[in-house]
């Protein structure tokens, strides 16, 4: 849809945008401007010329892509750190006794949930989104909208309602869904959401993650990482922490400006993207790849119909097969023990890429 | 000492390296290489071509500047997040009842300490480094080596011994001392240290902070932010968190590679710097500025003789005076209510800068 805006090396079919998005062409130039002019020439003055507010400003840009009205998303820290903020915020003061964690989610969410459980005395229970068995003991459910291994898409509306029906809160991890399909956090009354920006949003390696705290939860949201950037008067140098009234209370320390402004630049390519159209292209690309894989190989596609922008294929010797694919210019990745993952970012992946990738996979595994 | 390596704009005397260091000239070019080649051409492959290990590799480079042998420093996250890790690690399992926090430290340290106290049930007590009154109730003391307002340098050796004498641990904040003077964390048996890299280390705006966990504490250090980057087998995708055996357990989520590699580039200018010589130049520059301020103005210098690379001057109407200084090309900053701060980074500040800055201050306040 926007391939001309991206730098994709000659001869490469890049199907790993679900792990690290490709760089929009203009990001390199923007980085020069940031390093040479903003940092080099303006020096400390740049903090009052746009840097300080960048986490909220870029947060609002992400917000538009996930159905969050302005003032509810802030960018900064890593996904893991934001999972921690969201879960600690969700269980604060609860008398409920369990945290339910999506057993199919990317492991870091579970690791952080274990730490939160251990610190707060709650129990942790792993469950699949298809059988959460929530009760009035459940304080919060941590769910991933798209399964990082299989590419399965979970039903955000139904699962959010399921949590709310027993009075539990829900934290959605959008790492594999932001930039994939229309998401309606506000409309679905999601309690918290977090996600990374370096996959389908193309923010760059390790670009800062985001957290969504809806307006009506902000006044009671306690950030366990009560750093000075979240203070209501950060330059007041007050001895006591008093959180900002709004989303800035989810900030912690000084934001990593170079990574943040690379993301800011990368988000330009989304400015006039219609997410419904994007979603159709993503479904078409993954369907096309799936069809060719099933026609040309004996491999099992483990991605269900309800899916994100990813097709996962069970394949013996997955690691070596992926090495060979990469050697032939088809870049995906693998997850142990036997899964090949192929991500389809509609902004820069074409139908020809999808067909050629399936053909190459067939050649290697035949 | 290395001014030719830095980009300082024509006509600017830059005395705010204690807040945001100036960029070494080659950082812009390195960023191009990182964005265009590492991210753009190598794409996901760069994760196994140096990115994954960057937090430890760059950590070792910082370690050399703070007296830490390799394998004990990791770079990532913000200072506030690292204060949290260090304090939570220090109080884990303690039966002692109080956290003592340097009342003169930069506020974020105290804010985070308050959160740690509140989560763990310990009490927090603010005290000045000159009268800590530690007891066998003290679990940990959080101290800043250089006072961000006055520039006062505290005695790391004496204060560390004072803490250890009652069986307390000590966490040192090196934000205003790393890159200022020789620091001997290993030799002084410091328990934990953290610090930022964007002040005297010139890592760039919001460049990632660091944490020092000495070898002998690593096996028992529990990182409350148990993200997948700290796992002993991060790509094993195991359901349970098992920390890395070494310093990598202090890692959390995916590191912000652009900011990290800008810092990496910036550290090149330190490669052959003799820290004892640097210290002498810092003392000479601050003495020269102080002497001229005291000779030419009626303003009170509040920085004591035991100092970092900073001279602080009490000045009525500090905010407007600093605005006028900046308008005349002398860039420092102010801290409420009435303190002007001038930082002297010996790598790029000259004697002429120090004299001219004092003269300009005198012109404005006479």
From TrEMBL, chains A, B:
User: What's the short name of a Pfam family annotated to this entry?
Assistant: KYNU_C
Q: What class of enzyme is it?
A: hydrolase
Q: What is its EC number?
A: 3.7.1.3
Question: Which GO molecular function annotations are given, in alphabetical order?
Answer: kynureninase activity
Per UniProt, which keywords does this protein have? Hydrolase, Pyridine nucleotide biosynthesis, Pyridoxal phosphate
**Entry keyword annotation includes Hydrolase:** yes
Q: Does the keyword Hydrolase apply?
A: yes
Q: NCBIfam families per the record?
A: kynureninase
Name by which UniProt lists this protein? Kynureninase
Top-level taxonomy: Bacteria, Bacillati, Actinomycetota, Actinomycetes, Pseudonocardiales
Q: What's the encoding gene here?
A: kynU
């Amino acid at each position: 849809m926007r391939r001309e805006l991206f730098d994709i090396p000659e001869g490469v079919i890049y199907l790993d945008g679900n792990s690290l998005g490709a760089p929009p062409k203009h990001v390199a130039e923007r980085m020069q401007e940031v390093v040479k002019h903003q940092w080099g020439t303006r020096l400390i003055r740049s903090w009052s010329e746009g840097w300080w507010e960048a986490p909220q400003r870029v947060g609002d840009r992400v917000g538009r892509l996930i159905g969050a009205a302005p003032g509810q998303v802030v960018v900064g820290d890593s996904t893991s750190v934001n999972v921690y903020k969201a879960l600690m915020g969700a269980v604060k003061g609860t008398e409920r006794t369990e945290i339910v964690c999506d057993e199919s989610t990317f492991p870091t969410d579970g690791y952080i949930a274990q730490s939160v459980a251990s610190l707060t005395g709650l129990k942790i229970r792993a469950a699949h989104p298809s059988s959460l068995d929530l009760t009035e003991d459940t304080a919060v459910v941590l769910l991933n909208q798209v399964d990082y291994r299989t590419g399965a898409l979970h039903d955000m509306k139904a699962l959010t309602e399921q949590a709310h029906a027993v009075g539990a809160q829900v934290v959605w991890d959008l790492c594999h869904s932001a930039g994939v399909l229309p998401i309606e956090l506000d409309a679905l009354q999601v309690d918290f959401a977090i996600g990374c920006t370096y996959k389908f949003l193309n923010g760059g390696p390790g670009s800062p993650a985001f957290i969504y705290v809806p307006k009506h939860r902000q006044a009671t949201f306690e950030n366990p990482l009560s750093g000075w950037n979240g203070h209501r008067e950060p330059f007041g140098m007050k001895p006591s922490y008093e959180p900002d009234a709004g989303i800035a209370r989810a900030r912690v320390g000084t934001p990593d400006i170079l990574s943040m402004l690379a993301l800011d630049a990368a988000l330009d390519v989304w400015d006039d993207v219609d997410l419904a159209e994007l979603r159709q292209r993503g479904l078409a690309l993954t369907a096309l790849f799936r069809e060719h894989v099933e026609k040309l190989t004996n491999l099992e596609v483990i991605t269900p119909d309800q899916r994100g922008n990813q097709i996962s294929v069970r394949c013996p010797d997955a690691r070596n097969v992926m090495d060979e694919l990469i050697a032939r210019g088809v870049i995906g990745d693998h997850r142990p023990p036997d899964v090949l993952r192929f991500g389809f970012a509609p902004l820069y992946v074409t139908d020809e890429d999808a067909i050629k990738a399936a053909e190459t996979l067939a050649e290697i595994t035949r």
